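Provenance and format

Records in this collection were gathered into a single text stream. Each protein contributes a sequence line and a C-alpha cell line. The two records reproduced below are adjacent in the stream.
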Amino acid sequence: MKKILVLLCVLTCSMSNVKAQTKEEIRAALEQTCKMMAPYMIDEELKEQFEIFGITEDCYCNAFVETMMEKLLPQLEGKEMTMEIYMKIMQKLIDETTPEHVEFAAYFTSVLEKKCANAGMFSSSVTVKGPSKGTISLSKYGTMHKIKVTIGKSEKYFTMDTGADNSLITKSYARELEDMNLIQPKDYIEPAEYIGIHDKKAVLHKRVQLNNIRIGDFTLDNVILVIGNDDSSGLLLGKDILNAFQSWNINNNNSTLELVK
C-alpha cells in the first residue's frame, strides 16, 4: 500500500487548482498520470504479485483513479491546492494508523476486486455446504489454535493462520493423500508462485483442488491447497477457507470458531 500512496502523492500534485477543472477533466488527467507513472511504481515484487493474483496494470490504474475520485476529490473541491492543504492530506493518508489511510486502502481494495475479476487475493474459490451457522471446537496450541480437518478418511489438525491468504499442506501429507487416492493426477492444477513470509521471494508451488473437505458440520468444495516444497510450514488453514463464509469469529474464552455461511 505504501507504493500506492507514493503514486497518490504524484497524482495529487496533478490535481492542483481543482476548482477550475471539471470532474471529467480531473479523471482524464489522473488516468493519464497513473498510466505514465505506473511502470515506474510497479517494481519486480509488485509485478510478481500481479501475476499471481491476476491483476493487470490497467485495472490497477482504473481502481486507483476511481478511489481518488470517490475518496480524495470531495476533500479538494472548491479549494486551491496549496502546499499546506496538500501536506495535511498526505500526512493523514500515508500514516497507516489513521482512519483516512485505512478507509482509502479498504475502498481501493474493494474497487480493485471488482475491476480485477480474477484477483485471487480478494476472493475465495471455496463453496460451502452445510448448516447456516455452526460452532467448531479448536485446540489451543501455544498462542495459536488448531482445527480438525477431514479429507476422506484422513483426519489432521491444521494450524489456524488468519494472516495466510492460502491454505497449505506439506509435501509429505500430499504424498499420504495420494497413497489413499484422495489426491489423484486430475486434482493437480497449474502451479503458482507465492511470496515467502520471511525472505519475500516468490517460489513456485504445486497446487491441488479438492472437494468434500470437512470442518465441523460443513463440507467445502473447490478448495485449493498449496503444497509446501518441504514440511517446514506444517498444515495451515488460511483466509481462503475462512473467507468462504459470510462471517467467522474465534472465541478465545472457550476456544471455538463460530461460522456463518
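Adjacent record:
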Amino acid sequence: MAASFETFEHGADIGIRGRGKTLSEAFENGAKTMFSLFVEDLDTIIPRKSVTISCESFDIEGLFVAWLNSLLAESDIQRLIFSDFKVRIQDLSLMGTAMGEPFDLSRHQRGVEVKGATFTELVVRQDDEGWIAQCVVDV
C-alpha cells in the first residue's frame, strides 16, 4: 500500500491526500496530512487534549471538506494543533475526535498556515488498495 498520508503539488496552494484500508482511515489520514503542514514535524505534537467534531454533508466528497474545515475551525478556536484523529462515518454523517496540544515555540517548528479546505481536485474513492480522500487546501 502507498503512503498513508501525503501532499501533492498544486500551484500556489497544496494538495493533501489521505489513504486507508477504510473510508474512516482515509479521512483520518487526510486530516493528518493537513495538520502536518502546520509544523515541520507532526510527531512533536503530543495528543494531550481531545475535541469532538461532528459534521454532515450532501455527499461523501463534501463530507471530507466539511471534516477538514471543522477541524480547522476547532483548531483556531481551541488554539490547538491536532496530530491524531479518530473518525466514524455513517451515511453522510461523521463523528470524530481530534487530539493535539497548543503550539509551543520551544518544541515546534512552524510550518504553513492552512486557511481552508476546498473542492479543488476533490476526490473520495475506493481503489484496489483501499480508500483515497484528497483535496487542495488554501495556504
